[in-house]
Amino acid sequence: MVANPTELITSDKNNTVKLVKGLLTQARQRKKHSQTVLEGVHLIDAALRSDYPFAQILLAESAHTHPEVGQLLTRLPSHTPITTLSDSLYESIRSLGTGIDIMALITIPTPSLPMLAEDCLILNDVQDSGNVGTLLRTAAAVGIPHILCTSATAQAWSPKTLRAGMGAQFALHIYEGLSIQDILDHVQAPLFATSSHTDTLIYQHDLTQPIAWIMGHEGQGVSAELMQCATPIALPQPNGQESLNVAIAGSLCLYETLRQRKYATL
Questions:
Q1: If one looks up domain 8-107 in CATH, what number appears?
Q2: Neighbour-count burial of 236, counting CB atoms closer than 10 A to its CB (0-12 exposed, 13-18 middle, 19+ buried)
Q3: Domain segments of the chain: what residues?
Q4: pLDDT-derived band of residue 31, with 50, 70 and 90 as boundaries?
Q5: pTM for this one?
Q6: What is the pLDDT of residues 201-220, one digit of tens each?
Q7: How many CB atoms lie within 10 A of CB 62?
Q8: What are the backbone dihedrals phi and psi of residue 195, each rounded to the nearest 5 degrees, phi first?
Q9: What ranges make up the beta strands (E) of 40-81?
């Protein structure tokens, strides 16, 4: 049974239901309310492991008896509000397919950008949520703690990016809505960026000191203003492809950085 049981909600006119539906589907609603939604047990588990607070839990009536749901709910702080929706209502608002019908409403963190002399990843107008989520997941895996997102970058805390990142967001410090000048004013580590206009391969660079990696827009690449301040590097493409997907390129750069620092003698 669920702790903190509530009455069953069946109407899509319910204010919480309308809010969650808007947060799941509209970037402007997430910005307006500074909130987002975690769907499914994996993301909720990731938030719980990071001690991230929940504003509210919503679940389908049939999910009450699911063992994974029961385990999650026993780990919640006792004051966490829990709202039960009829199965048909929950199905009408969810953005995931068939699965374990539980979601959580959370507040999006908005940390202030500090001066950074350590490793960071700059996402310069990376517009695809899948690419952003993949880069966040890779950064968390290799130990890059800070993610700086310029204003046209896909929302790091959107439901789609959260799913692509598999909850990596909870292991990172993410700064969104930044201008190029914000980055130049606060990032003290050397800037490195992939470029098709250099012949110097990544393997010819010493990546053992703190680095600010820049990954750019899927079509236009890194902005000229940032590129002027960065060291350009090339990834080898002996078969002559025009370019790599930004998430693949970024992952290769981050893992070469890790290799040089910890595995160079292997």
A1: 3.30.1330.30
A2: exposed
A3: 8-107, 120-262
A4: very high
A5: 0.92
A6: 999 999 999 999 999 999 89
A7: 14
A8: -150, 145
A9: 56-60
